[in-house]
Write a structure and sequence with these properties.
The structure holds two protein chains of two kinds.
Chain A (H helix, E strand, L loop, with lengths): L1 E2 L1 E5 H8 L6 H14 L3 E4 L19 H11 L4 E6 L6 H10 L4 E7 L7 H9 L3 E7 L6 H14 L4 E4 L7 H14 L4 E4 L7 H10 L4 E4 L13 H11 L1 E2 L4 H15 L8 H9 L6 H11 L3 H10 L8 H18 L1
Parallel strand pairs in A: 1-10, 2-3, 2-9, 3-4, 4-5, 5-6, 6-7, 7-8, 8-9
Chain B lengths: L3 E6 L3 H12 L3 E7 L6 H8 L4 E2 L4 H5 L6 E4 L3 H13 L3 E4 L11 H8 L4 E3 L3 H16 L3 E11 L5 H5 L1 H16 L3 E9 L7 E9 L4 H16 L5 E10 L2 E8 L11 H25 L1
Parallel strand pairs in B: 1-2, 1-4, 2-3, 4-5, 5-6, 7-8
Antiparallel strand pairs in B: 7-9, 9-11, 10-11
Helix pairs in contact in B: 1-2, 1-10, 5-10, 6-8, 6-9, 6-10
The chains are: A alpha/beta, B alpha/beta.
Chain lengths: 339, 292
C-alpha cells in the first residue's frame, strides 16, 4: 500500500482563523488527541509562524515559547513542527530557543520566488540535527519552472522535503497536477502540498497532488485555517484510505480530535464565505481575510473591492499594511465620487 | 569653490550609485573609485565618467593616504572591520554602509551634528534610514512608548545576494536602531520581498503601541521630519499619515530612488546612499570652513 504523510497544520494555520488567540488548554487538548490518533507531524504557532506575532499580521495571545512548551508536553509519538519565515524570524531571536523547546521539524518558508532567503535557516536546522522542510508559499504566483528552480535551491541548502502552498486557495486540480508532477520528476526530495479551500478545491487538489506523486499532504482538522480554511484533515484521512493510500492514522481517534477543534477551539466552522471566495479568485493570501474584514468595517468600504485591488497589486503574504493603504484609497475614491 | 576629496571603496551597485551622487555634489569630489576588478561594470562606468580608479582595494588608500579625507565603505561587514582600523590610523573618516556596526549609528535627519565629528559613522540599514526617523518622532511626541514595529517591503530585484544572506543582521540591526532612537521598550523589524513586475517602490510602515496617543503632536512632528528627510531624499513620501486604528498607531512612507545607477524602484538602496552623502557633505562643509 502506498503511503502518504499527513502533516497537521491545525494549531498553526488555525491561528489565523481566531486572530492568533490559541490558549494553552486548547493546545494541550488538541495536541494530545492528535498524538493519540497518530498524526506524524503536529505544527503549532502563530499563523505566520515563529517570531511573527506583530502588529503587521496580528499579535499572539501566547508567546512562541509558551506554545511550544505546551505542545511539546502533549506529544509523545507525533513530531513537533514549526513554520518559520525569514524576514519575520531570525536564528538568534527565534530559532535557537525553538530547538531548546524540542522542535523536531522546521518548515522554512518564503514567498514562492524567494527561496534564497531560506538558506541560513535551513542549514542551521540541519546543523542542529533537526529535520528541515523547504516551503514555497503563494505558489500559484509562479510557473512550474520557477517553482522547480526555487525548489532546487532549497534542496541544495539541505531541505529534506519541498512543500508548495496554495496560500490563496487559487488552484484548480489541473494547476496542481502540472506543478506537482514537474517537481516530483525533477527533485530528489519528497514533494508535499498544502491546500486552501477558497474555491472549494481543498480535498480535490490534495488528491490530485498525491496522484501526481506528492508524498506529504498538509491538512487541518475541520479545515480550521486561514480564509476558507485548509483541506479538512479527517476527510483527507478517510479519502486517502478509500483510494488505497495508507496514512497510519486511526480514523476514529482522528474524528475525536476534529470534534475537539469544533467544540473547543473554533469560533465558526470554516466555509467558503463571499469574501474568502473573492480572496481565492484574486489570488490574495487567505491569511488576509480577518484584516480585510476589519479594515472594510473601519473605513466603510467593500471587502471584496479591497481583495481585488490587492490582487491587482500582486501583494504577497506579510504585506498586510497594504490593506489599510488600499482601504483608505478606496474610501477617498468613493468620497470623491459622491461629491 | 574647492571640494573635499572622497574615495569610494567597493565598486558594486551601492558604490557605483554613490559615485553618481558624489559627482553631483557641490562639496565633494571623487578622487578614487576602488574595486578589485578593472573590468567590472562599476569600474568601467567610473572610467567612462573620467574618475580615477584602482583595483587594489584598501591598499590603494594605504599607498596614497593623502588622496582623500573621507572614505565611503561599500564592501562587506567583514571587510569593513579590517578597513576601519587602517582608516583610523590614517586619520581618514569612514562612512560605513556595511552592517559592521563599529561606529555610532547615524540618521542625518536626527543626529547629523553629533555624527560629523566621529571618525567612523555607521549608516545602519536601508530600512532603518526610512523607518527610524518616524520611530524617533513617536518617541519624542508620545508618553510611554511600549512597542514600535517597522515593516519594509522592497522589490525582489533590489535585494542582491548579500542582502538575502544577511536578512537576520538587517532585522537585528534595524531593531537596535529603532530602540536607540525612539527609547521604546520593545521593537521588531520585518522585511518582505515582493517579486511583482513592474517592480514596486520601497515601502515602509511604522506601527506603535503607546499608553495615551497624542495624534496631533505626532502628525505635526511627522510632517516636520518628512520635510527634513526630503532635503536629502527628495522622493521620501508619506502615503498613509499617522492614523490611530485598532489600538495601534500606523503610518506608511514610500521611497522612490533617484535612479542614478540603480533603478528608481530601488528606493531602499537609494535612501542609504542619500543619507551617506548628507553626512559626507556636512563633514565636508565643516572641513572647508576650517581650511578657510
Amino acid at each position: 500500500m502506498k503511503k502518504v504523510i499527513i502533516s497537521d497544520a491545525t494549531l498553526r494555520d488555525g491561528s489565523h482563523a481566531i486572530s492568533h488567540q490559541l490558549t494553552k488548554a486548547q493546545i494541550t487538548k488538541y495536541a494530545q488527541a492528535a498524538d493519540k490518533a497518530g498524526l506524524p507531524i503536529v505544527e503549532v504557532g502563530h499563523g505566520n509562524g515563529l517570531g511573527a506575532s506583530s502588529l503587521q499580521v496580528g499579535l499572539s495571545l501566547l508567546d512562541d515559547r509558551e506554545m511550544l512548551e505546551t505542545a511539546r508536553a502533549s506529544l509523545t509519538r507525533s513530531k513537533l513542527g514549526i513554520h518559520i519565515i525569514p524576514g519575520f524570524a531570525t536564528i538568534n531571536n527565534d530559532l535557537k530557543f525553538a530547538f531548546d523547546y524540542g522542535v523536531d521539524v522546521v518548515r522554512v518558508a518564503s514567498h514562492c520566488t524567494e527561496a534564497d532567503i531560506t538558506e541560513r535557516h535551513i542549514s542551521y536546522t540541519r546543523e542542529q540535527g533537526r529535520e528541515a522542510y523547504g516551503v514555497l508559499m503563494m505558489s500559484h504566483m509562479a510557473s512550474r519552472e520557477v517553482l522547480l528552480d526555487e525548489g532546487l535551491k532549497m534542496q541544495s541548502y539541505g531541505a529534506e522535503a519541498l512543500i508548495i502552498m496554495d496560500s490563496a486557495g487559487a488552484y484548480l486540480p489541473t494547476d496542481v497536477q502540472d506543478r506537482i508532477s514537474h517537481l516530483v520528476a525533477n527533485l530528489n526530495i519528497p514533494v508535499g502540498f498544502h491546500a486552501h479551500n477558497n474555491l472549494g478545491m481543498g480535498i480535490a487538489n490534495s488528491i490530485t497532488a498525491v496522484e501526481a506523486g506528492a508524498q506529504i499532504i498538509d491538512g487541518a482538522s475541520r479545515g480550521f485555517g486561514a480564509g476558507a480554511g485548509n483541506a479538512q484533515l479527517e476527510v483527507l484521512v478517510a479519502v486517502f484510505e478509500k483510494l488505497g493510500f495508507s496514512t497510519g492514522i486511526d480514523l476514529y481517534k482522528m474524528l475525536d480530535a476534529a470534534d475537539i477543534v469544533e467544540k473547543e477551539i473554533m469560533q465558526s466552522t470554516p466555509c467558503v464565505t463571499s469574501v474568502s471566495l473573492v480572496s481565492g479568485l484574486s489570488g490574495v493570501f487567505s491569511g488576509f481575510a480577518k484584516h480585510v474584514s476589519l479594515a472594510a468595517k473601519e473605513y466603510g468600504v467593500d471587502p471584496r473591492d479591497i481583495f481585488f485591488e490587492l490582487g491587482r497589486r500582486k501583494v504577497v503574504g506579510g504585506q498586510e499594511d497594504k490593506i489599510v493603504e488600499v482601504a483608505l484609497e478606496l474610501r477617498e475614491k468613493t468620497e470623491a465620487r459622491t461629491k | 569653490m574647492s571640494k573635499i576629496k572622497v574615495a569610494i571603496l567597493g565598486s558594486g551597485n551601492i558604490g557605483t550609485d554613490l559615485l553618481y551622487k558624489v559627482l553631483r555634489s557641490e562639496y565633494l569630489e571623487c578622487s578614487l573609485f576602488i574595486g578589485r576588478n578593472l573590468s567590472s561594470k562599476g569600474m568601467s562606468r567610473a572610467v567612462s565618467l573620467g574618475v580615477p580608479v584602482s583595483d587594489q582595494g584598501i591598499q590603494a588608500i594605504q599607498n596614497r593616504p593623502d588622496c582623500c579625507d573621507i572614505v565611503f565603505d561599500c564592501t562587506s561587514a567583514m571587510s569593513h572591520k579590517i578597513h576601519a582600523a587602517i582608516l583610523n590610523d590614517l586619520n581618514i573618516t569612514a562612512i560605513d554602509l556595511t552592517p559592521a556596526k563599529l561606529g555610532p549609528f547615524c540618521i542625518p535627519a536626527i543626529n547629523l551634528d553629533a555624527c560629523k565629528s566621529d571618525k567612523n559613522i555607521n549608516m545602519i540599514t536601508c530600512g532603518g534610514q526610512a523607518s527610524i526617523p518616524l520611530a524617533h518622532v513617536i518617541g519624542q511626541t508620545q508618553k510611554e512608548v511600549d512597542y514600535i514595529e517597522v515593516v519594509s517591503t522592497i522589490a525582489s530585484k533590489s535585494a542582491g545576494p548579500a542582502t538575502r544572506l544577511n536578512l537576520d543582521e538587517y532585522i537585528e540591526t534595524t531593531e537596535k536602531g529603532v530602540k536607540m532612537f525612539s527609547g521604546c521598550k520593545r521593537s521588531k523589524a520585518i522585511l518582505n520581498l515582493n517579486p511583482a513586475e513592474p517592480c514596486i517602490d520601497m515601502q515602509t510602515t511604522v506601527y506603535a503601541q503607546v499608553r495615551k496617543p497624542d495624534m496631533e503632536a505626532l502628525k505635526k512632528g511627522v510632517d516636520e521630519m518628512v520635510a527634513k528627510i526630503q532635503k536629502y531624499v527628495p522622493s521620501y513620501l508619506l502615503v498613509v499619515p499617522p492614523t490611530y486604528e485598532n489600538n495601534r498607531i500606523i503610518m506608511t512612507v514610500r521611497v522612490k530612488g533617484l535612479g542614478d545607477f540603480l533603478p528608481s524602484y530601488a528606493g531602499n538602496l537609494d535612501i542609504i546612499n542619500c543619507a551617506a552623502i548628507a553626512v559626507a557633505e556636512e563633514y565636508a562643509k565643516s572641513l572647508l570652513e576650517k581650511r578657510g
